[in-house]
Amino acid sequence: MKQGVTNMQNILIVVDMQNDFIDGALGTKEAVAIVPNVIETIKGFEGTILYTKDTHFDDYMDTQEGKNLPVPHCIKGTDGWNLAEDIETVKCPQDKVFEKMTFGSKELGDYLQRLAIEEDIEEITLVGLCTDICVISNALLVKAYLPEVPVAVLQDCCAGVTPESHKNALEAMKMCQIEVR
Asked: Any residues with CB less than 8 A from the CB of 116 and at least 6 apart, and which?
C-alpha cells in the first residue's frame, strides 16, 4: 500500500452512456435494454466512478471516423451528446467526466496512472457502449497503462453494435486478461 493509504480503491468506468448510442443516431434495442443494469451498478458501486463521453464536432464527416462511419453522432452540445437522463440522475457532481474524440481516452489513462501513484487500485470495472468499439478500446487502454491492476467488464451492462460483435469483443477481452462477468 502507498504511504497513508488505508484501503484499496475500486473504480467504475461508465463508457459513453449517451443518448445517441442508446436510442439516438446509433441506438439499438440492446443498448436501451442495458440502461437499468448500468443504473443499478452505478447506484450500488462503492468506489470512484468515472465517465467517458464520445465527443465530436461539426466537422465529424471530414474526420477518419466520419468517413468510415458516416453517421453524425455525439456532436458536442446536442442532446445526442448528453448522458442519458436516467444516467445523469444517478451521477454524482464529484464524478469526473472525460470527453474523448477517439475510441479510447488517453486522458483517462493518464488520470488513472497518476491516481495509482497516490492510491492502491484494487480493480477497475467497465460498463457501457459500445462493447466492440469504445468499451474494448478503453479496457485495453487501462491494461496498457496499469498492467498489474485487474480489469473487469460487466457483460450485462454493455451492448455492442450487434449482438454478435458484442460477444466477439467479450471473447477478445478475455484473451487480453480482462475478466468478463
From this structure: 146, 149
Tens-place pLDDT, residues 33-84: 999 999 999 999 999 999 999 999 999 999 999 999 999 999 999 999 999 9
| C-alpha–C-alpha distance, residues 39 and 70, integer Å | 30
114-143 confidence digits (pLDDT tens): 999 999 999 999 999 999 999 999 999 999
The grid coordinates listed for 140 are 485495453
User: In 3D, which of 20, 31, 87, 30 has the Cα closest to residue 54?
Assistant: 20
Cα(152)–Cα(154) distance, integer angstroms:
7
Cell numbers describing residue 79:
442532446
User: What's the whole-model pTM score?
Assistant: 0.95
Cell numbers at 115, concatenated: 491516481
Name which of 59, 63, 48, 50 is nearest 127 in CA terms.
50
Go through 135-171 and write b for each residue having 16 or more CB atoms within 10 A of its CB, e for each that does not.
bbbbbbbbbebbeebebbbbbebbbbbeeebbeebbe
Q: In whole angstroms, what separates CA 143 from the centre of its chain?
A: 14
48-54 and 96-100 strand pairing: parallel
124 three-state secondary structure: strand
